[in-house]
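Handout, section 4.2: multi-component inputs.
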Amino acid sequence: MRQFDYIVKDPLGIHARPAGLLVKEISQFTSSVTIAKGEKGADAKKIFSLMGLGIKCGDTVSVTVEGADEDNATAALERFMEASW
Amino acid sequence: MITINGTGIFGGVAFGRIAFYRRRENLVKRVRVGAAAAEVERFLAAREVATEDLKALYEKALAEVGEANAVIFQIHQIMLEDGDYCDSITNIITAQSVNAEYAVATTGDNFSRMFASMEDDYMKARAADIKDISARLVRILCNAREQTMDSGGLVILAADDLAPSETVQLNKEKILAFVTARGSANSHTAILSKMMNIPAVIGTGEALREEYDGKEAIVDGFTGTVYIEPDVETAKEMKEKAAVQAEKKRLLNQLRGKENKTLDGCVVEVFANISSVADAASVLQNDAGGVGLFRSEFLYLKSEDYPTEIEQFQAYKLVAENMAGKKVVIRTLDIGADKQAGYFKLPKEENPAMGYRAIRVCLDRPEIFKTQLRALYRASAFGNIAVMFPMITSVEEILTVKRMLREVRAELYAGGISYSDTMEIGVMIETPAAVMISDLLAREVDFFSIGTNDLTQYSLAIDRQNPMLNKFYNPRHKGLLRMIKMVADNAHAQGKWVGICGELAADLELTGTFLAMGVDELSVSPPFILPLREKIRRINVSECKADALSEL
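Output:
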């Protein structure tokens, strides 16, 4: 299992576009990915549940990756978030 | 005359007859079914069709409004695939043994209500997206044909609301404008109308009554006003407004895509001056060849603290990507006592125009400066970025800057972060001192951009803010023109290019003179781009060259 925290930089927070791009990005991996903001967690492969977290600019989210390809998935996620979140 | 107010979404004035769009509501009945499994199959099959439809809509939107705005249809596809959304539908079908239409409509209602109840305005607006995709599925399941928006003649479309997919399919040949009772400025409908250049007024509320169907009206997309059965004065006022718009449009149509080439074949770059990321849209709409001055101050003025490297990087990257390979010249921080953010704590000055500002502040606060330089270099990997430094008055200054640039490149390289090795660097020539040493400066940089506003102020010793001095202020002063020529000659002697980014670049009386001097680039405010192109295409440089230069 891999885990990392990330502070969201997108000035608009996590809206449909970055949420959709994230779902697309991780759909290629078999690992399960959970994104948590405070107490609330969401399955990162589900766009509605991701958007429902109401993540804003400046929020710290905790990303948990678990599965056979978790190393690749985590690396890809970190890169993706740096560039688009 | 009845006046209705709403939010104007796209600036434009339209005259026409109102046509109300009545969406055929597919009445969804709850029907018990025998074989739930088969019903689930129906849903899945309808979802496939919907996905294909959305792919086609994406392609259409891509062509009309560009990738960033078309992506909503890809998001719709992802929403259709969403685990929670589909589970809800299949669960309703199997648990209650009911028809797919009902399951989809119920799920759509539940999800859109969830979004509508969120505090964030943006999230609230997403309820419309869920309604759109659910309605699409229901339509497919009911075998209903998509309602066409074809209304026969040229009309102003009025509706309760328009879904993004309906907006993108509007036939621009037939629809002059649209007005909706609901809708938010955050909606994709609003974004699409902007990109499709259709004047629109949304959120009028109940004031938009169906009884106006068929009446003459004027839509003012600038002010967000709709005049039903307008009176004579209003009609006249709006006609004038429309005439100004029409002229702009004419220029756009005639000159879009044409080269900035004179009658005798001289080519000059016409770029745009912008102050924010959002301005990039207007750069493309006005068909500029690039951005000649991207003022970076907005990043510093809009927050309570210094913008971080990543915030800056994302802003620069966004513009570079939107410009898709066209050059973007970004000017580093140009802040002073007269225009600052509190957190800078710049001391009050008697003479801020000639004070502690711009590059002077940056060289004194290297951590702040380096943050900007790092962000710029990182963004350079994503497009065609050039950087220029304001208020440079000595060779030592530029050498210090170059040393810092080398340090930044080394740090990025060591950190494995990509950047463009060939990012051009330039300086703004804004002071007489810089003009006089432009031969020396030309050896150190790739280009110059002449800031004529400040250069005129400093050279004529005139305070631009003082209205008493207006009569002494001659922006076409011969001294200034001679300085521009000197700078151009010095740059060209070293094989470097020179542009003008001050207001003078848009002065059409001087275009011939600038071309005669061999100025390589003129950067102007977006509305001036096409008028400038029109002027360029009518000039014969060799004919006016002798005169223009002898005048100096």
